Amino acid sequence: MAAIVQQWSLVYKRELGALLSLPLYYILCGIFFLLTSLIYLATLAEFARQAEGTTVNVTDSVIRPVFHVVHFFLLVQVPLLTMRIFAEDQESGMLDLLQTTPMRDWPLLTGKFAAMVTAMGVYIALTVSFPFATSLLGEVEWPVVVGSVLALLASASAYAAVGVFFSAVTESQVVAAVLSYVTLFLLVFLQVFAQAAGIPALEDAALHFAVMEHLEAILSGNIAAMNVMYFVGMSVVFLFFTARRLSMRRARA
Amino acid sequence: MIEVDGLTKHYGPTRSIEDLSFSVPKGDILGFLGPNGAGKSTTMRILAGIARPTRGSARIEGEDVQQPSESLRRKIGYLPENSPFYGDMTLGGYLRFMAGVKGLPGREARREMERVTELVNLSDVRHRLMRNLSRGMRQRACFAQALLGSPPVLILDEPTVGLDPSQINDVRRLIRSLAGECTVILSTHILPEVELVCSRVVIIANGRIAAQGTPEELVSREGGNTLAVIVRGAEGTFREKLSGWPGGGEPAVSHRPDIAADAWQALLPAPANGNKDPRPELARGLVEAGLDLLEMRPERLRLEDIFLRAIGK
Q1: Chain B closest CA to A112's CA: distance in Å?
Q2: Residue B22: enclosing H or E segment and its boundaries?
Q3: Interface A-B: count of C-beta contacts within 8 A
């Protein structure tokens, strides 16, 4: 057991170190944080103009839209950061080497996954500065903020799991990113597709499986177990796929 | 102890290796010799447990490598063919990472890191990033990685590739020093390497075993060393004089018009050490029979000749 913990933490530290030494990480976080800030300021200005003399809620009209933007940016950057996570190791042969050691596949993949979630957590933590700034101007509903951060973390984990899986599927980082994008956009915009198709059964399914459905719920302060479990379940499922894929590598190689 | 039995690996319709069987006794160093693309790396990968054979089996210390247990994996040190590494780690960090992953606890991992960097002469560059090291240094770093925890079985895929001559010598000396305590299988296409380092040789060509044994066995099985005799004169007289050669039978005589129109060459089995040397007598006989003795020289059969013969070139 001690050995597994040690292996896990070694993989975690090494992967986090690798992520934090990627220029791409800083570029993405920097650009998206800047964009989010601009959007925040614009939303705030718009709110100030409209809210003159009314009782419109600042949380609903500023914080929530901004967190939607943060979510969208997470969706955009996660595949770019996860694409190398296994593809690079497969290409260099490092994964082969690691798979000959006594270490199991589970500490390897969960260590990498956790490092990725941590890196995204840093970006999400940065965006908490917006509600803080807003609280200087008006009343912020903190439970909604907490719920939103949780929703963002949970969705970032789920997207990271998808990205990790596709990175394990192929040696090509570009292919990994493309496959992750296709899958994530399908899941996120499932309702839109279902409605466009006009098939009731599909629309029904979309209600349960579409990301937006659950995200909206949490973002509006409804931190129901179902909604959080949706993202946790998505992470677990894709991590399980990844584990299968890693053990199948040996069989097929 | 490594036992390979009927090992076959097909990639779709391509046959990478076909029906390989050999064994490496405990403490021996086996050289796995073959031209590029002969199936060396495939075999090594199967032994390391990261590729499955289509048919056949491989056992290390009695355990099937297809479902390697943790304890089996702990017994194997593997150097993959392109010596992978993490470029953003220092050499020491990389080795500590690998030691930890192999299950050595913190302090021991550090000690092992120090021991193996010492072994491969890389102590001075411990703090440098792997990506800034030369290719030869990375190769040795990866070799050092295989030595972490002193595993009793080493699988080394081309351990000297990319090294300069003095580093090659160091690595060969290091591998030789492991003989006895470690069972080693190393692949190479460099012949002198096998002669210098290995106690057994398996030559593979086109995925099949072309020859195997100790280097001495291979040489003697292929007819051993020979004595080349070249004369000028009548072929009949030459043959007659050769008939008294010990262990000879009918000697192979060939025409050598490149030397002279009436020049002949015979290849005789080299006289065994210790017996009365028959060469002076043959020389006298040839000259007395009126033949011009042009040359009499031993032809040493090298592993290279056996290798070229085995792979059909």
Answers
A1: 14
A2: strand B14-24
A3: 80
Query: Is B144 in CB contact (< 8 Å) with chain A?
Result: no
Percentage of the residues of chain A whose pLDDT score is greater than 70: 91
Cβ–Cβ contact B180 with A under 8 A? no
Q: What is the pLDDT of residues B46-81, one digit of tens each?
A: 999 888 899 999 999 888 988 888 889 999 999 998
With CB atoms and an 8 Å threshold, state whether B86 touches A94: yes
Give the separation between CA B294 and CA B313, rounded to whole angstroms. Answer: 30
Q: Where are the alpha helices (DSSP H) in chain B?
A: 40-48, 70-74, 91-101, 106-119, 135-147, 165-178, 191-197, 215-221, 235-242, 279-288, 303-310
pLDDT over threshold 90, residue B242: no
Residues of chain B with CATH 3.30.70: 223-300
**Identity of the amino acid at B157:** D
ipTM passes above 0.95: no
Residues of A with CB under 8 A from a CB of B: 2-3, 6-7, 10-11, 14, 17-18, 21, 89, 92-94, 96-104, 249-253
In chain A, where the domains are located: 2-252
Q: Which of B73, B97, B105 sits opposite A14 (nearest CB)?
A: B97
Tell me the pLDDT of chain B averaged across its residues.
87
Task: In chain B, list all ranges with CATH 3.40.50.300.
Answer: 2-220
CATH number of the structural domain B223-300: 3.30.70
For residue A19, the distance in angstroms to the closest alpha carbon of chain B comes to 10
Report the predicted TM-score, pTM, of the whole model to 2 decimal places. Answer: 0.83
Q: Domain spanning B2-220: which CATH class is it, in words?
A: alpha beta
**Cα atoms in the Cβ-side hemisphere of radius 13 Å centred on B113:** 24
Q: Of A97, A104, A250, which has the smallest distance from its Cβ to B80's Cβ?
A: A97
List strands edge to edge, sheet with B63-64: B14-24, B2-11, B55-60, B63-64
Cα separations in angstroms, A200 against A11, A192, A203, A205, B256: 46, 13, 5, 9, 93
Best A101, A171, A252 member to test B by mutation, with max B CBs in 10 Å, is: A101
pLDDT score for B126: 94
